[in-house]
Design a protein that fits this description.
Elements lengths: L5 E2 L3 E9 L3 E8 L8 E6 L5 H12 L9 E5 L5 E5 L14 H20 L2 E2 L8 E3 L5 E3 L6 E2 L34 H16 L14 H4 L6 H6 L15 H19 L16 E13 L2 E12 L5 E5 L5
Helix pairs in contact: 2-3, 2-6
C-alpha cells in the first residue's frame, strides 16, 4: 500500500518542490487518471491568507489564456489547495539574461498576456521573474495571481496600508498599499523592470535604469539604447501618468525589435544571428522557390543563412537587382 500523501482523495504527492511564507508546493499525479501528466499542487500554509488564496483561484477562473496558468481543481477544506499545470521550462530567473531579440519576443508575449487580463478587469500587481515560467515551447506563462486586483469588485486582498508585491518590481505608488492608487499602470512598471531583468540578468532599484545601470553599459550592447529610450523611459517611471499602457508598451517593443533587426541584423553572410544574438550567419546558399497563385506561376529567389553558434536557419528574399 502506498504511503504517499494524498490531497482531496485524488492528488498523490510525487515530490515536495518548495515552501514559501504562505504555501507549500508539491508535484502531484492524478489518481483518477483524468490528467496523465504530472501537475503542481499549491497548499495554503497560513490560513490567515485564505482570502488571498480564494482570490487567486477566482481570478484565474475568469481568465482563459495559454499564457496564464489555469486552475484545474481546488478545495477550501482543511488544508485548502489548488492544482495547476507543471511547466518544464522553469522560472525566468534560471534563464536570464537573454539576447535582445529573444528578450523582446518574451516581453511582447508578456504584454499580450497582461493586456488580456486587463481587458478582463484583472490587475496582477505582483509581476516579477519568479512569477513567470517557460512552457515547453519557450513561451512565457504567468503564475501566482494571489495579489491581483479585481476591478469589478473595487476591492483587494490586503489591508489598506499593507505593502504588496516584490520590492524590486512594485510600482512606487503601491509601496504604502493605497487602494485608490491601484491602476493598470502598476503592471506597466513591473513589466519594464522585467524587461530590464531579461536583458541584464539582474534587478535594479526603483527607476535606476540610467547612469551606471544603463543597459548599453551593463550589457555592452549599443542596440539596447532603443530599449531604454522607447520602452523603459515610458514604463519604469515614478509618475503613473507618465507610463504607457501595457498594450502600448507591447506595440513599442515590436517597433524596437524591428529597428534592431534592421540596423544590427541585416540578414547577410557574416551578420549577427537574429535568434541568439551571438553567432554569425554563414553557409550562404541560394534557393529558388516556385510560387503558384490563381492564373500565375513565378519563381522567387531566396538565400539561406545558418548561424554558426545556435544553428538557427533564416530565409531572406534576394534584394532586387542581385
Amino acid at each position: 500500500m502506498s504511503s504517499a500523501r494524498i490531497f482531496g482523495g485524488r492528488w498523490e504527492v510525487v515530490t515536495p518542490l518548495d515552501e514559501g511564507g504562505q504555501s507549500y508546493v508539491y508535484k502531484v499525479r492524478d489518481r483518477n487518471g483524468e490528467f496523465t501528466e504530472e501537475l503542481i499542487l499549491k497548499r495554503l500554509k497560513n490560513l490567515k491568507r485564505l482570502d488571498r488564496f480564494e482570490r487567486e483561484i477566482k481570478s484565474c477562473q475568469q481568465l482563459s489564456h495559454s499564457g496564464i496558468a489555469p486552475i484545474l481543481a481546488y478545495s477550501f477544506d482543511d488544508p485548502p489547495f489548488f492544482v495547476t499545470k507543471f511547466y518544464e521550462g522553469g522560472p525566468l530567473t534560471t534563464h536570464a539574461p537573454f539576447p535582445p531579440i529573444q528578450a523582446l519576443d518574451l516581453f511582447i508575449q508578456l504584454c499580450n498576456i497582461v493586456s488580456y487580463a486587463h481587458k478582463k478587469g484583472v490587475i496582477h500587481r505582483d509581476l516579477k521573474p519568479d512569477n513567470i515560467v517557460l512552457n515547453r515551447d519557450r513561451s512565457p506563462v504567468i503564475i501566482d495571481f494571489g495579489l491581483c486586483y479585481l476591478q469589478e469588485e473595487d476591492q483587494r486582498i490586503t489591508a489598506t496600508m499593507e505593502q504588496v508585491g516584490s520590492r524590486f518590481y512594485i510600482a512606487p505608488e503601491l509601496e504604502q498599499g493605497h487602494l485608490e492608487k491601484v491602476t493598470y499602470r502598476v503592471d506597466s512598471y513591473a513589466l519594464g523592470k522585467i524587461l530590464y531583468f531579461l536583458l541584464a540578468g539582474r534587478n535594479i532599484a526603483r527607476e535606476a535604469f540610467r547612469g551606471d545601470n544603463d543597459l548599453t553599459k551593463v550589457c555592452n550592447n549599443e542596440q539596447l539604447n532603443y530599449v531604454s529610450d522607447r520602452i523603459l523611459a515610458y514604463a519604469v517611471v515614478e509618475n503613473p501618468d507618465d507610463r504607457k499602457s501595457v498594450a502600448e508598451l507591447g506595440r513599442e517593443a515590436r517597433d524596437v525589435r524591428r529597428l534592431i533587426i534592421e540596423h544590427y541584423y541585416p540578414g547577410t553572410e557574416g551578420s549577427l544571428c537574429r535568434f541568439c544574438g551571438e553567432g554569425h550567419y554563414g553557409k550562404f546558399t541560394k534557393s529558388t522557390i516556385r510560387l503558384r497563385e490563381p492564373g500565375i506561376e513565378h519563381s522567387v529567389d531566396f538565400y539561406v543563412l545558418v548561424c554558426d553558434k545556435c544553428r538557427n536557419v533564416e530565409w531572406f528574399r534576394f534584394p532586387e537587382g542581385r
